[in-house]
Automatic annotation (TrEMBL):
GO MF, one example: ABC-type transporter activity
Residue ranges occupied by any ABC-2 type transporter transmembrane domain in the UniProt entry: 27-365, 406-742
Gene3D superfamilies tied to this protein: abc type-2 transporter like domain
Lineage top rank: taxon: Bacteria
UniProt-recorded name of the protein: ABC-2 type transporter transmembrane domain-containing protein
PANTHER family xrefs: ABC TRANSPORTER PERMEASE, MEMBRANE COMPONENT OF ABC TRANSPORTER YHHJ-RELATED
Topology relative to the membrane: Multi-pass membrane protein
Major localisation: membrane
Length: 754
């Protein structure tokens, strides 16, 4: 390391840092290669946009004209695909556990007769709520297809009795997502996660470059510090602009508001991230601690950004952490200008907050760097002398325990993340979202509907503007999360089988749209059933056969119960992956590069054993503590954990063998975690993701096992039902283990020859 005094002044420091970047292959990877890879992969990963052709099954015990209509309507719906028609529910549930289907339609015997005799059994839609995004969309599409079939069948049967002319329609609920009418996941998720990934990479690059001053004889002044940060700010600002150029020109997604304000927000975000990264190094005075804090801070940006589950009614901790994240304020500005075209004054407030982060971060970095000149106290050195497999095994355990950065990553981080991520989703559902209602009818029906809406869990009517224009202005400026408009003659049209009501929601909050839509539909049906309304109308056409939607495996339909168990698998993998790589990097710092085969096996076994313990902690105690779906099939879980951790440890050792020191692990590999989660199929189905992305990330066990462990823990999948995933894990253990063994024994032979 070059410990010469830093360049003084803004421009000399900037030029000096550009030269350092050009000379450092690791920084070039972080600032050029990884952003390019992330941009290509994430933009293509979600390019399908809308989930379609979701495989479902039908269990038909009726075999009637009604069931044939249902099957025909399902086949005609592009959102769902009839994949199987098992004989009974047991066979259908086995297909769900195998992840071959996401929903089941159970048609009971004599269901068609219930269109005339409504006391018979309901048609039931069972959907996999543990994979909420896919399961709920399949359930909605199935409900629509079945409702149409019931109306068709009921119309035919009542027509035979001369009753065809008394049927009226329940008013329709039309949900419009402003700025994303297609409800595209590309429009929703890509702008949420890709800037966060770039933000994390920038943070890693800043920590790596500022940390070199910890051992330098002189510290930079404020101008030289700014000059050192500027190249990274400029480079990552350019990557953000490339991304938005791709979204607008390449994919056709417009920026509805001010592009200038969006660019300012990007620049301010990058400057705030750089300043905070520099401050973390100055505060901790340790590169490993700074990397850990930076990764925790930046990797949680999406979780706490308010972009998925709202933090409005979350715990005080979640609200506090969300609001001290620079990314939260940037993302709000991004929503306001990309989707809503908010007023400039509204978005300008976020720039003010980001400016405070910039100034505060720089002042902290400068003041602490100037005041702290003592050398760091090094942790006690573990004994790295070993020979043979047994000694390598115990030396590995000793190194993990005695080396603070490794122990913090591989063990303590699992405990920390067991509380960190669940805290964001403690409320589980969207509660009392602020909604504006425009009642232009002021009838008994509209008043009853408004009372019912206020009584729901999801909606809080906070505004009653006089006109739709005023209401939409409130939505545009993010003063409300949605707008409900009841137009003139709403009641008269409803009682004559016409009309409906419109709901307008922000495009950035797709997770909330379904909950608000369901709340309005149920409130409207209840309002139509009130005595004052019933006396003034004839029968509306709610099908006599009830359609029931039953969530499977996550019966509370909590967002935390859906997303955290998926993240948990990634937490176990990434902590073990990073810890294994850090151990190898630590040994390489002390000139231990190659291993004999027995030494490799001892090291691999020790790391795998640690991974088994952290897996049991996460899937056992943490799931029990947080009350997440668990204990589905304990024997299958115990069979999967050893190959999962063995494959992860082998991959971590391989990744560690290509770096020169321990700190490079976080610098290089921390930015890939969000991408690894996206490709698992938990939030967006794998069958909609391009095959080349799936295959390129197959060496990471999470690609197979995030959904795999979810099916085991919540659905109770057996070993035979999970055989394809188990075989994939065994193949990874064999391939990655063989590659790692060859790599380390080759390095040993090469070192001896040299």
């Amino acid at each position: 390391m070059n410990l010469a005094a830093p360049a003084r002044g803004l421009f000399p420091s900037l030029l000096d840092e550009l030269q350092r970047i050009a000379r450092s292959p690791y920084q070039l990877i972080v600032v050029l290669l990884l952003p390019c890879i992330m941009l290509i992969m994430v933009s293509h990963l979600l390019s399908a946009g809308v989930v379609q052709h979701t495989p479902i099954a039908i269990v038909d015990a009726d075999h009637s004209s009604l069931s044939r209509r249902i099957i025909s309507n399902i086949k005609a719906n592009p959102k769902i695909q009839l994949a199987a028609m098992p004989e009974d529910m047991q066979q259908a549930l086995a297909l769900v556990r195998q992840n071959k289907i996401y929903a089941i339609v159970e048609i009971p015997s004599q269901a068609s007769s219930a269109t005339v005799y409504p006391d018979l059994r309901s048609i039931v839609i069972h959907y996999n709520a543990q994979l909420r995004t896919i399961g709920s969309q399949a359930s909605s599409a199935l409900s629509q297809a079945i409702e149409v079939a019931l109306k068709q069948e009921g119309r035919v049967r009542r027509g035979m009795g001369g009753l065809e002319n008394i049927e009226l329609s329940l008013p329709q609920v039309q949900v419009t997502t402003v700025g994303n009418a297609q409800q595209s996941f590309e429009r929703f998720l890509t702008p949420l996660v890709l800037p966060a990934i770039l933000n994390l990479l920038l943070s890693c690059a800043i920590v790596a470059t500022i940390a070199r001053h910890l051992k330098a004889p002189a510290r930079p002044n404020l101008l030289s510090l700014i000059g050192q940060l500027l190249p990274y700010v400029l480079i990552f600002t350019a990557w953000h602009l490339v991304f938005w150029l791709w979204m607008v020109a390449g994919r056709g997604w417009p920026i509805n508001g001010s592009a200038g304000l969006l660019v300012l927000g990007i620049i301010w975000l990058c400057m705030a991230t750089a300043a905070i990264g520099a401050a973390l190094v100055a505060i901790t005075r340790d590169i490993h601690s700074a990397f850990s804090l930076s990764t925790i801070y930046a990797s949680g940006a999406v979780t706490y950004s308010d972009g998925t589950l709202p933090v409005l009614n979350a715990s005080g901790w979640a609200q506090f952490w969300a609001n001290i994240q620079p990314y939260t304020h940037y993302y709000r500005l991004q929503i306001e200008q990309v989707s809503l075209a908010s007023d400039a004054a509204v978005s300008g407030l976020h720039l003010v907050v980001l400016s405070l982060y910039i100034v505060g971060g720089l002042l902290i970095a400068k003041s602490l760097a100037k005041a702290n000149k003592k050398e760091l106290k090094l942790s006690p050195m573990p004994d790295l002398a070993f020979s043979g497999g047994r000694e390598a095994f115990f030396s590995t355990l000793s190194s993990v325990v005695k080396t603070k950065p490794i122990f913090s990553t591989i063990a303590l981080a699992v405990v920390l993340y067991s509380f960190y991520y669940p805290a964001a989703y403690k409320s589980q559902v969207s509660i009392k979202l602020p909604i504006a209602v425009v009642d232009l009818d002021d009838s008994s029906l509209s008043r009853s509907l408004i009372r019912n809406l206020q009584a729901t869990r999801s909606i809080n009517i906070t505004e009653r503007p006089a006109s739709p224009q005023q209401a939409l202005t409130l939505l545009r400026n993010r003063q409300v999360d949605g707008v409900i408009i009841l137009d003139h003659n709403f009641m008269r049209k409803a009682l004559h089988g016409h009309g409906g009501l419109g709901i307008y929601l922000t495009a950035a909050y797709l997770v909330r749209a379904a909950e608000v839509g369901n709340a309005v539909s149920s409130s409207l049906e209840a309002a139509m059933a009130t005595p004052s309304t019933r006396l003034e109308r004839t029968q509306f056409s709610r099908p006599e056969v009830n359609i029931e939607q039953w969530p499977m495996f996550d019966t509370t339909e909590g967002y935390g119960s859906f997303v955290v168990p998926a993240i948990a698998t990634l937490i176990v993998q990434q902590t073990l992956l990073f810890g294994s790589a850090m151990l190898i990097g630590f040994r390489r710092e002390h000139q231990i590069r190659g291993l004999q085969l027995s030494e490799f096996l001892g090291t691999w076994l020790a790391l795998s054993l640690i991974g088994c313990f952290t897996s049991l902690l996460m899937f056992g105690y943490t799931f029990w503590l947080q009350d997440y779906p668990r204990g589905g099939n304990l024997s299958t879980l115990l069979a999967f954990i050893p190959p999962f951790t063995a494959a992860t440890a082998a991959l971590g050792m391989l990744l560690g063998s290509v770096i020169d020191r321990m700190s490079r692990v976080m610098q290089i590999y921390a930015g890939i975690s969000i991408l690894l989660f996206l490709v698992t199929g938990a939030s967006f189905p794998q069958y909609m993701i391009p095959d080349w992305i799936i295959w390129s990330l197959m060496p990471f066990p999470s690609t197979t096992m995030v959904v795999g462990f979810t099916q085991i823990n919540s659905a109770g999948a057996s070993l035979s039902e999970m055989a394809p995933a188990f075989n994939t894990l065994l193949a990874l253990v064999l391939i990655l283990g063989s590659l790692a063994a060859w790599r380390f024994t080759w390095l040993k032979r090469h070192a001896q020859y040299s």
